[in-house]
Design brief:
single chain, Serine Threonine Protein Phosphatase 5, Tetratricopeptide repeat, mainly alpha, about 0% strand
């Protein structure tokens, strides 16, 4: 049973109940009042108060089916599924046509991941109700069960049924668009929203969702237009200004983007994301002082936003202030130590500072955390070579072959390492491979292994290979 703020004596019942709890003077309430009170606290998430209301309600009205159904709801919330099921079985014997019994039974089945059985049970409940509001509620529950089963097409259809009964059911509208997005049907989502807006042209939520779909399809002008309509419908809609700013950025209209981001800061509590975007826009406009100002505001607002620290790091890296860049990249890594891209930037900064051991550690972690591009393997090996650790460099390059087979850059490096270790046969093997794959890259030996490249037999081998080509 649902109650709204307009129900008779609603506020009075709540006030009377809370007063009773403070004074410990037990008062009588009729069963409907206990339903109102317990439902209110459940909806507010105040479970302890809901439980008190239900306990007292059952003491004063031990035969009330509705209060017992609220007790079932508490059991389900607390994962006490066996007592919930036992109580439901008892209530079924009393009121077999009470739809709430089937709804709670479906909730138990859902908790047990028996989603199809939950849907079948909700379908029975659907046949027991007639009010549009109750029908819509059950449609929504069925839609959620299909979502749990990742049957997004079926879920979408049920949320559409909800929307047909209540065109301002924005929760269902969001779920419909979520289903379209998961199915990667952006154009279908646009078509659906177009029809929806024909009937509800001042829905800021729908215009906002329309803009998001156009943004995804890279139709940025249309996205901006949709966000403008959302703003016309509600000029305090911060999300529309934010999304409009992102679309304007894509159109390289950075000043207009900044204006929209700043509006979001004025409408809501300042958000680190909007500040970060403003900083990026100022950088694109080559207004460095403004950019760094907003980057610092970003991390002041949210010190745990690693992207803010990375923005500051890259700012100082471009300015060639590597000491400051190193300080801030350490901040970012302290927040997300498993980000391969951050470790790569850490390695590059340390390399600029000639901190070779730290650079090697950076590239090693870059690879460990999944950034397995050829450049990262080569850079890791090159730093190890500079450190004179040929054996570790060799091990790393052999591992790289598994990800990048038949790569001349790797073969030349392996050749240089083996010649340096006086393993001539292996050196010959890899040098021949390198020359076969790309004879123009022999300069790798000159740059990384100058002593090796000066050996006469190696010069002869290279010259002979180039003559054949």
């Amino acid at each position: 049973m649902k109650f709204s703020q307009s129900d008779d004596n609603y506020e009075y019942s709540l006030t009377k109940f809370e007063s009773m709890l403070k004074t410990n003077n037990v008062q009588f309430f009729d069963s409907a009042e206990f339903e109102v009170i317990a439902t209110h606290y459940l909806e507010m998430g105040k479970i302890a108060l809901a439980k008190k209301a239900i306990k007292m309600g059952l003491e004063q009205h031990p035969a009330s089916v509705e209060i017992k159904l609220l007790q079932v709801e508490i059991y389900v919330l607390e994962d006490k599924l066996q007592p919930a099921e036992k109580l439901l079985d008892t209530l079924y014997q009393i009121e077999p046509t009470n739809e709430e019994i089937y709804i709670q039974k479906a909730s138990i089945l859902s908790k047990r991941d028996e989603h199809q059985k939950a849907i079948d049970t909700l379908t029975i409940a659907l046949n027991l109700v007639s009010e549009d509001e109750d029908v819509a509620d059950i449609y929504a529950l069925i839609g959620m069960e299909y979502l749990y089963m990742e049957q997004f097409g079926d879920a979408k259809d049920y949320f559409i049924k909800c929307l047909e009964l209540d065109y301002e059911d924005y929760s269902s509208l969001y779920n419909i668009i979520y289903c379209f997005e998961y199915l990667e049907l952006e154009q279908d989502a646009i078509n659906f929203l177009t029809k929806y807006l024909d009937k509800n042209p001042y829905s800021e939520v729908a215009w906002h969702q329309m803009g998001r779909q156009y943004y995804k399809t890279k139709e940025y002008e249309k996205a901006v237009s949709a966000f403008d309509f959302a703003i016309i419908s509600d000029d305090t809609f911060a999300g529309a200004y934010l999304e409009k700013g992102k679309a304007l950025e894509k159109m390289k209209l950075y000043r207009e983007a900044i204006e929209n981001y700043k509006i979001t800061l004025a409408l809501n509590e300042p958000t680190s994301y909007a500040m970060l975007r403003i900083g990026n826009c100022y950088e694109k406009l080559k207004e460095s002082d403004n950019a760094i100002q907003y980057y610092y505001k970003t991390v002041h607002e949210d010190p745990l936003l690693d992207k803010g620290w990375i923005a500051i790091t890259k700012y100082y890296y471009r300015k060639k202030n590597y000491q400051k860049a190193l300080y801030y990249i350490n901040k970012a890594i302290g927040i997300d130590s498993e980000n391969g891209h951050y470790w790569k930037l850490y390695a590059q900064i340390n390399l600029r500072l000639n901190f070779l051991e730290e650079a090697e550690n950076g590239y090693k972690n870059t690879l460990i955390y999944g950034n397995l591009s050829l450049d990262n393997w080569l850079n890791h090996a090159d730093v190890l070579i500079q450190l004179g650790d040929f054996e570790t460099a060799c091990t790393s390059l052999k591992e790289a072959v598994g990800f990048h087979p038949n790569t001349a850059d790797i073969e030349y490096r392996l050749a240089g390492i083996y010649f340096s270790l006086l393993e001539t046969d292996k050196g010959h093997f890899h040098l021949k491979n390198g020359l076969k794959l790309n004879p123009e890259l022999d300069y790798i030996l000159t740059e990384l292994f100058p002593m090796v490249s000066k050996m006469q037999f190696i010069k002869d081998l290279i010259a002979e290979s180039k003559f054949k080509h």
